[in-house]
Amino acid sequence: MKQLKTSIEISAPPDKIWSILMDFDRYPEWNPFIISIIGKPKIRERLRVTLQPPDSKPMVFKPQVTLFKKEKQFGWLGSLFMRGIFDGHHIFEIEELTDNKCIFIQREDFSGLLVPLLWKSLDTKTRAGFMAMNNKIKDLAEK
């Protein structure tokens, strides 16, 4: 298993960051990495997610929501073809530091047969996508 993890400090309360993260309808307007999410953020629900890492073509997958703790955590598990080939457990976390300061964490745990073959691209392009999204959330939340 490999993990990709990024974080950014945001001068905003958790509820403001959470409202941006959960407003899937607005993703096409601001999100440079996850350009679309269709579905409801409820445990066991399937989403339709379109990702576009920098310098890459868009990818569509249908992960299942695995984690939902209001204003704290949201996550899903996606697989390529079938479980065990290439699986990604994507998690967003908001850690409150003070009343008006948080750490926004975006991480993904990858497992499966194809991870060693894809790791270089994940560690560069996907990491850059995480950081671009983190920076945009920070900009929006701090306005």
TrEMBL record:
Pfam families registered for this protein in UniProt: Polyketide_cyc2 (PF10604)
Top-level taxon of origin: Bacteria
Name of the protein described by the UniProt record: SRPBCC domain-containing protein
Lineage start: Bacteria, Pseudomonadati, Bacteroidota, Cytophagia, Cytophagales
